[in-house]
Amino acid sequence: MSNILVPTWIYKDCNAENYMSRKYKFHNKSGVYFISFATVYWIDVFIRQEYFSVLEHSIAYCRKEKGMEVFAYCFMPSHVHLIFRSSIMTLRFIKGL
């Protein structure tokens, strides 16, 4: 796993206004990517087992049915980090998690 790719929006602009751009760009569909996403207002949603289970089952479904390879993950109370690869890398795929 020597070539971890980071979407271009992460380093584009580091000031608070532009940090989380909506212009996701995955240039290498066979690359390994790091993504991070948070709940609205950083609310601790995933401390409740029912919501954590939805996240857990969604990742498991993508691994089994969509061919997603997960190399590392971290589920936090209000956000998620993933290092993964998927041949069907699209914004729709990511938002479908």
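(the above was protein one; protein two follows)
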Amino acid sequence: MSILTGIVDGLEIDGKRWGVAFVDLVAFVGLTAMALRKRRYWPIPLAGCQLVVVLTHAVSLAGDHSVWTAVTVRLIAWVVILLILIFAAYEAHVVRRYGLEKP
């Protein structure tokens, strides 16, 4: 996702990074679809955190005074997303190692 963000980072309208917002929106839609299809519970908070990231783009439209608030919330959401992904990798390891997958 960060590769796509780097590619579309220059797409701006009136100083707003619409390209990055679009990449984040597409990621939210994909994560939501995954959360609705998979039997794991960790994709649900992952999609929720990505929704927070998408909403920070909408908050930044309110004015220049809220941009730093949106950036701070976005950074916190990305840290939580990273922690969820680390947990997901660990869960996949445990499921494969101990055969905990339910039919």
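Reviewer note on protein two: The two ends are 32 Å apart (CA to CA).
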